[in-house]
Write a structure and sequence with these properties.
- It is a single chain.
- The chain is mostly helical and 293 residues long.
- The protein has 14 helices and no strands.
- It has helices at residues 16-50, 55-59, 73-80, 84-115, 121-130, 136-149, 157-164, 168-179, 183-191, 196-207, 209-224, 228-233, 241-247, 258-289.
């Protein structure tokens, strides 16, 4: 008695092999993503753990990864030792003012670079992109002298003027997005008697909500996390939470209380995380669509 094999249909191959390869590829991809996520979350996790330790545990060598007794009162102490809500309010006001104004002004400038024809447009756009390579420290002293001459030190007017001046990176995002919109939209609006200002406000800006969302989150994060400008331009009463966290948790000898700084830093980061979680869909969409052209 001889063994028989099942007939096979010509032109068809078993599907088991490709399915296994797909599963292996997904497993490798997920493993890499989890590892990268762990690398990014590691510093934040260490910050959280440090905020729950005693100063002695932070200074001990070798490093003790987990606290022996969790110091939950560090969070309350960090919140109560300074006017935490007052400094957070100052940061929120400045961040909202700057993020709103710079998003709109950058959208307007990006629209001009994308849709208006003018001599030297490409040269000006290249100069704009080149300005992104200038470190902030180079323009810090001239900026301070200008605001001091104008009587704007210890006010929020510098952030208003910065917002109205647009930001090179945000201009680049909007320019890339607007350049990819169909020319027919603009031509139809011109035939109907709409000027370029109307085209921008009525047609282009409503369609750019992904880039608007991404730009607002980026600008808000810039201002919320800025330490140098508020330290230089604002007094202690008007300063931001970033400056307060880094400069007020000190002993009488001037030594930083690192565990309270860590606990306050965790609370300081929470608003940014919440904003990103709320606007993450628009943020991701804006960062992807702005690079299509």
């Amino acid at each position: 008695m001889t063994a028989t094999t099942a007939p096979t249909t010509p032109g068809l191959t078993p599907k088991r092999g490709p399915r296994i390869r797909v599963r292996v590829n997904r497993l490798v991809l997920y493993t890499v993503l989890v590892a990268i996520t762990g690398l990014f979350l590691g510093p934040f996790g260490w910050l959280v753990v440090s905020g729950l330790k005693t100063p002695a545990e932070l200074a001990v060598s070798p490093v003790r990864w987990l606290p022996e007794h969790v110091q939950w009162h560090n969070v309350a102490d960090a919140f109560n030792l300074i006017d935490f809500l007052g400094y957070a309010r100052n940061s929120l006001i400045i961040a909202l003012i700057y993020a709103t104004l710079v998003t709109l002004s950058s959208a307007w400038v990006g629209f001009g670079f994308a849709r208006l024809e003018a001599p030297g447009r490409k040269t000006l756009f290249g100069i704009l992109l080149g300005s992104m390579m200038l470190p902030q420290m180079i323009t810090l002293l001239p900026t301070y002298l200008i605001f001091a001459k104008l009587g704007m030190v210890d006010t929020y007017w510098p952030w208003v003027l910065w917002g109205l001046s647009s930001a090179p990176y945000l201009v680049f995002l909007f320019r890339q997005f607007f350049a990819g919109l169909p020319r027919e939209l603009e031509e139809a609006a011109i035939v109907d008697g709409c000027g370029y200002a109307g085209i921008f406000w009525r047609i282009f800006l409503p369609q750019s909500w992904p880039v608007l969302s991404a730009s607002f989150v980026i600008a808000f994060t810039w201002t919320w996390g800025d330490y140098i400008a508020p330290q230089l331009l604002l007094s202690t009463d008007r300063t931001t939470l970033a400056v307060a966290v880094m400069s007020t948790y000190v002993t009488s000898a001037g030594t930083p209380v690192t565990n309270l700084q860590a606990a306050a830093s965790v609370m300081y980061v929470v608003p940014i995380l919440l904003i990103f979680l709320v606007a993450q869909r628009g943020f991701v969409a804006g960062m992807s669509t702005s690079g299509l052209k």
